[in-house]
Amino acid sequence: MKLLLQRVRHAKVDVADETVGEIAQGLLAFIGLEKHDDEAAVEKMMERLLNYRVFADEQGRMNLSVVDINGGVLLVSQFTLAADTSKGRRPGFSTAAEPTRAKNLYVHALACLREQHADVAAGKFGADMQISLLNDGPVTFLLES
Fold it and tell me: Domain range holding 100?
């Protein structure tokens, strides 16, 4: 599993010109699910996401999590994060989770986040999505399981 986190001032996801998920300050999290991922790995990664310290404290140090600042989380499935880009000029997707399994894991990830945090929004799995964001920093991290 790969989780690309972007600290944002605000972010939203539109599908067919309709906003399906939106947050103010917080984390935009793109999730790429791979064949070996399971519910336990998803649960661990969602806990990590919520507690990853990327927001500034009073001294300007990255010591606060999205939970600490009561920020939003916008979770968006992104199949291309699971691509194998180690060679050649075209990404390979043999390591990506099969679509039905990936969707089930994505739904589980959302449930985990919503159990632990109030402000959670989502994209639409498998849809053509347009993402708008204002990256804060810019601050971007790639977490891998």
Answer: 2-134
